[in-house]
Structure formats: structure tokens, C-alpha cells
Design brief:
Elements: E1 3-8, E2 13-18, E3 20-22, H1 24-36, E4 43-47, E5 51-53, H2 57-72, E6 80-83, H3 91-98, E7 106-109, H4 112-122
Parallel strand pairs: 2-4, 3-5, 4-6, 6-7
Antiparallel strand pairs: 1-2
Length: 126
Amino acid sequence: MPIYVTVYHLDKTIIGKTEGDVTLADIEGYLEDIVKARAVPYRKIFDATGGTSRLTPEDVETLRAKLKEFTQTRDNVGPFAVVTGGDRQGRMANICQTISTADRPMRVFNDIHSARRWLDEELPIS
């Protein structure tokens, strides 16, 4: 799977890291992993620097609908930081921007350190 998920229960953080070609099924798997880990409210970093989107325009629309449902059927999905490595014009970064329509704190960052700082401010570990 081109999205590797690591859950840190002690500090309530999830790190998703893309690698290679990323499909709609991979992103759906990422969401399933979060639910299975009972970590939906956790802070999330999605590192898209190593991935290349293979989503079609139809896949993007399907993803948009799934993410809307995902956030609307849960009370708290936690803040979401996307790391693009400065390539905000890249296809994977654009796909991640799809998520920004969700009703939760979300920002795009050039590096993981900035993303972590923002998450610490947005949802401090309690």
C-alpha cells in the first residue's frame, strides 16, 4: 500500500506517508486504518511528498463525497496537516486540497516540522 499509517496513541497523532503511485483505494484504506485504530479525533499529518496521485477526475469527485461523509458522520475528526514539500502545484498536493473542504482545521505545509508546530497549537496534547 502506498500510504503507510503510523498511529501514536500516547500523543494522539497519526502520520500517513505516501510512497509511489497513490490510488483512490489507497486513500480509502488510509481512512479505514484511522477508524480501525479508533483514532479519528487524533491530530493527523499526511506526508504527500513521496507520492504521486493516480486519481482520475471521477476518483477525485468520489473522494470528495467520501470525505464529506467521513467528516459529517463523526463528531470530531481532528486537525489535518498536509506536507507537500513545497510542491503545491503537484497533483498529490492538489488532491490533498480536496480535503480542505471538510469542516475541520486543515492546512498545507512545506515541511513536517511546521506541520507538527501547527498541530501542537491547534490541538495540544492533553
